[in-house]
Amino acid sequence: MRPANFEYFSPTTLQQAAALLAESEGAGRILAGGQSLMAAMNLRLSKPSRLVDLRRIPGLDSIEIGADKVRIGAMTRHADIIGHDGLHRRIPLFRQAGRNIAHATIREHGTMGGSMSLADPAAEWATVLSLLGARLQVVSTEGERWIPVEEFFVSYYTTALTENEILTAIEVPLPPQSTYFGFMEFSRQSGAFALAMVAVALQVNAGRVDHIKGCVGACSARPALLQLDAPGGALPDDQAVDASFDALGLEPADDIHAAAQDRKQIAKTLLRRCLAAAYAQSKGA
After folding, report:
1. pLDDT at residue number 153
2. Are both 30 and 76 inside the same structural domain?
3. What are the pLDDT digits (tens) for 269-278?
């Protein structure tokens, strides 16, 4: 199929982009890679009257590592995030998770901002950035504001962005050097949407686990954070891990891909394995 008719604009400044979006009165969409939007338009599931392409606006595709935070431009491609060695040294979770994103073509053209704005609960960056406590910068003709990641995702494919706002950057606080990460997801085949995914962060000092944080994706409308106790500085046993997961009260989708109960059991298994893998990294560091 072909998309419905639309106007196309390729501004060179954020101010121009914001003005063009505002002029559309809610009928415009931002083009930030187009890997999901163009497919939806071709199927006429989405019929925007105007597309505002951000590709010609400078400064939206950079990765900056500061003293206490990382800033990633919203137009930064998945492949550039995965391949950034400096980012990998400080927060290896980005590469661990990013390698699971769809297929090579999607990773080469899709962007972090596009993925976050879509708010697919099975998207890797949503789970990663929720675990890391990111905040998101958005702009409009009315100015700029920052949205904490826990407030950004509202429900399935719904964010806190207003119809005239543009996501421009993501900031992540740098974790302590003693932090070790794990990421795992399960899908029916390579490149398919995950039935469940888990990211974890462990702070380990001299073999002692001081703090454990996890995030479960693809099992609810939004990424779900959980804290786990480390009794005596050790990893919790499987029973304690399962209890922490159950306390989230998640209600995954029950569909043709997997039963809800199966998704929950998969997520529990991934959580246990992720914790063990992250701790093993600390032992080999």
Report:
1. 97
2. no
3. 999 999 999 9
The predicted-structure confidence for 89-103, as pLDDT tens digits, reads as follows: 999 999 999 999 999
DSSP single-letter state for residue 255: S
Find out whether 223 and 127 touch, Cβ atoms under 8 Å. yes
Alpha-carbon torsion (145, 221, 112, 171), positive or negative: positive
User: How many angstroms separate the CA atoms of 225 and 216, rounded?
Assistant: 7
Are 48 and 108 part of one and the same domain?
Answer: no
CATH number (domain holding residue 163)? 3.30.465.10
2 located within any domain = no
Asked whether residue 60 carries a pLDDT value surpassing 80, the answer given is: yes
Could you give phi then psi for residue 128, rounded to 5 degrees? Answer: -60, -50
Instruction: Say which CATH number the domain at 12 has.
Output: 3.30.43.10
Give the type of residue at 155: S
Cα–Cα dist 170/205, whole Å:
29
Paired tokens of 91: 């927060």
> For 206-224, how does the pLDDT look when each residue is reduced to its tens digit (9 = 90+)?
999 999 999 999 999 999 9
In one-letter notation, the amino acid at residue 267 is A
Instruction: Output DSSP code: residue 214.
Output: E
Count how many domains the chain has: 3
Domain range enclosing 137: 63-173
* CA-wise closest residue to 21 among 166, 167, 169, 143: 166
